[in-house]
Write a structure and sequence with these properties.
Elements lengths: L13 E4 L4 E3 H7 L15 E4 L3 E4 L8
Antiparallel strand pairs: 1-2, 1-3, 3-4
The structure holds zinc ion (2 copies).
């Protein structure tokens, strides 16, 4: 059984990012309050798919230089 790399629990509303890493939807939302890159590979994330059906674009609240 695969676990979320942020909360280390089983996925809740599993999301797949544009860099093909999996996280819970809520974990991703929390992560993007402070970060703009993937927690695993550090690529900038532009969007994620929720269970492969929904599609959500990340809107950055602030630009970190
Ligand atoms: Zn999680
Ligand atoms: Zn990644």
């Amino acid at each position: 059984m695969e676990d979320c790399p942020i909360c280390f629990e089983s996925f809740i509303s599993k999301c797949i990012t544009n860099c093909n890493h999996n996280f819970c939807k809520l974990c991703l939302h929390k992560w993007f309050e402070k970060n703009i890159s993937c927690p695993i590979c550090r690529k900038t994330i532009y969007y994620y798919n929720l269970d492969g059906y929904e599609y959500e674009v990340i809107v950055y609240k602030k630009i970190i230089i």
